[in-house]
Specification:
The protein is α+β, with helices and mostly antiparallel strands. It has helices at 9-21, 27-34, 50-63, 80-83, 171-176, 198-204, 228-237, 340-345; strands at 47-48, 74-76, 96-102, 107-113, 117-123, 125-132, 135-140, 144-147, 153-157, 163-169, 182-184, 225-226, 249-252, 267-273, 282-284, 288-294, 296-301, 304-309, 313-316, 322-326, 332-338, 351-353, 365-366. It has a six-stranded antiparallel beta sheet with strand order 1-19-16-21-14-13. The longest helix has 14 residues, at 50-63. It is globular, with a radius of gyration of 23 Å. The model has no long low-confidence stretch (mean pLDDT 95). Bound molecules: 1-hydroxynaphthalene-2-carboxylic acid. 1-hydroxynaphthalene-2-carboxylic acid binds at residues 72, 74, 98, 100, 108, 113, 115, 117, 153, 167, 169, 171.
Length: 373
Amino acid sequence: MAKSESITKEILDHYYEGMKRNHLGPLWFDLGHMVTKEPVHDVEPYLWKWSTIREYALKAGELVEPGKDAERRVVYLQNPSLLKRGLIGYGTHTLYAGIQLLLPGEYAPSHHHSQSAIRFIIEGDDKAYTAVNGEKIYMERGDVVLTPAWTWHEHKHEGTEPVFWLDGLDVGLVRTMAASFFEQYEKEFYPMEAPENYSSQQFSMGVFKKLNEAPAPDEPSPIFGYKYQRAHYLLDQMTEADYDPFDGYALEYINPKTNGSADARIGTMIQKLKSGQQTKAHRHVHSAIYHIIEGTGYTIIDGQKFEWETGDFFILPPWSHHEHVNTGSCDAILFSFNDKPVMEKLQLEFSESYEQNDGHQVIEKVFVPNQTV
Ligand code: 1HN
């Protein structure tokens, strides 16, 4: 590394030690650590069985009460690879997933925060609602409910059966940006300001705009509730021409004002694979958390096989080759949420297909979840 013979090891050692003491560094050694050829990360894939999550969430129903012992009664998914770095509540480096349980008659009080949140209803029959800025959105199995950043939201159960849903938030992203704010509403409930399910009903009979209405690229979605019935119908209408080699029959939830992602920062997708279908492998910068709405199959992530069935959750880390296989006799339907909108806005999104072996990975390892109870 020395420029000339006269520069001795002693001179260099003295120089580098002095640099260190003064909290300076030589870029000629360290550029490769800072600017890597490809994304480098500590996010490992993981899979949780629904039977385990459900058992722990139900038990929480006996142990803690929302609005009293807990702001929310939620069992969250902790990625073990990120806990090693002290990152509590991280599913991926940007995304959090938790399972919330609300029992008949219960409520969770109104609050807001700078994190965006999406919800996917796992068990529910339209008798519990999330109120978003004073609008009640009733929640049925398979529905997606948005509570975009800073919207006031609360939950209440008016029915007779337990309701479980997935909460997906951009906890890691907001933490990295040092931008977390949280505030409780001054009362337990925010005033009801809009008719029930108003935002979704307003758009269910067609989407219109006033003549003088300008495009609104930064406006949040006017829809807070996306019904499963509609998503399922649209998936069933898709033809061979709509089949995506990497994602099968896939739909993204959108904001009709912008045509972009329904939530500005958290992307949401539903996809279907028919019996026996197998997608081709690719990888992208954005990370995702998957939930199996129904079906049986597996996903290969960087050569590791993750076997799944209805209700399971798995982590798709950034920049990891992945392909999905439906091994069941019925359709497999997968919901996922991701950080793609952020990557796209920051011009960091990039993807590439797996070129070897006709686009399919070789299975080198089979994942076994840690089931110590
Ligand atoms: C939150 O506000 C909810 O409103 C659920 O139901 C989970 C996890 C982290 C931060 C805020 C909710 C949350 C959360």
